[in-house]
Amino acid sequence: MAELHGLLARITLVITLATSAWSVAILVAGRPIRPALLAGLGWVVALLAATGALGLLSAVTVRPPSDALHLVYGVLAIAVLPGAWLIGRSGPDPRRRVIVLAIASVILVILSLRLFQTGG
């Protein structure tokens, strides 16, 4: 179970890095968000949730993570993109959504790297 959690976490990190780079590129280029990027970010959220569910199951059945901060970073990672979407869509300026999602994507990469540092 822990091995599957680790594999899914690595897959999620790769997709997170790709969508984060894409988000920042769209921000720098001054373009609007494409539906494909939103779908990619949706996949990131779904993969994070699945990884978190496997991690919780592994923590309960096998052993908890060596650092309790791993759980905190996991909750924050799962919440950052939906939270950014809610913040970004609240204004009339479509550029605001691009800015907020790009920043949230970079924060998610940082949180994901911290998850790898505190896990195991």
- Radius of gyration, in Å, reads 15 Å
- Which spans of ≥5 residues are poorly predicted at pLDDT below 50? none
Number of helices: 4
Mean pLDDT: 92
The string of secondary-structure elements, in order, is HHHH
What is the total domain count?
1
Beta-strand residue fraction: under 5%
The percentage helix is over 70%
Write the layout of secondary structure elements.
Elements: H1 2-29, H2 35-61, H3 69-88, H4 94-118
Question: How would you describe this structure to a colleague?
Answer:
The chain is mostly helical. The protein has one domain (2-118). Helices cover 83% and strands 0% of the residues. It contains four helices and no strands. The longest helix is centred in the N-terminal third of the chain and has 28 residues, at 2-29. It is elongated and about 45 Å long. The relative contact order is 0.19.
Kindly summarize this structure in a few lines.
This protein has one domain (2-118). 83% of the residues lie in helices and 0% in strands. The chain is built from 4 helices and no strands.
